[in-house]
Amino acid sequence: MLTKDPNERITIRQIKEHHWVTHGGKQPLLSTEENCIDIEVTDDDIQNSVKTIPKIKTLILVKSMLKFHTFGSQTKIERIRSHSQPNIAPEIHETSTGKAADIWALGITLSAVSLEKAALNPQLEDVILRMLTKDPNERITIRQIKILVKSMLKFHTFGSQTKIERIRSHSQPTSHQK
């Protein structure tokens, strides 16, 4: 796959049809549009959503959200407002939305996916808490997320604060919210 000779590299089609990526080579991956349509969770579905969303499809959805930045459009925001009020980024209620709101949405998605486990990975928890910082100007950026995730994968360590200290530091109101 990572060979220098382009003729020897595996193709995208071969990746999509590989048995690790599909269900035994029988069910090919959904397109980005199919994933976005296929995975829509309302408040009524929230209890069962983590159990019904396959991990690989969820990761593909998150990857496509990062790649195409397709999760901040006005129509989708209006749909989210009508379905899941607690999961909306605080600044959505104001006039402007942007990348910070998208980071919030990604944090909500990752936290829903990670809650499938009994205990949350402390490294992942720290990244999620930074994504869910109330002040959009203080919220972590895509670039910072990529750096942190890359360092977590490389060193398998992240942060020295305890879980309670991380939660306290990220849940403190900002000066303009007081």
UniProtKB/TrEMBL annotation:
InterPro entries: Kinase-like_dom_sf. Its EC number is 2.7.11.1. It catalyses: L-threonyl-[protein] + ATP = O-phospho-L-threonyl-[protein] + ADP + H(+); L-seryl-[protein] + ATP = O-phospho-L-seryl-[protein] + ADP + H(+). GO terms for molecular function: ATP binding; protein serine/threonine kinase activity. It comes from the Eukaryota. Keywords: ATP-binding, Kinase, Nucleotide-binding, Serine/threonine-protein kinase, Transferase. This is non-specific serine/threonine protein kinase. It comes from Desmophyllum pertusum. The gene is CAMKK2_2.
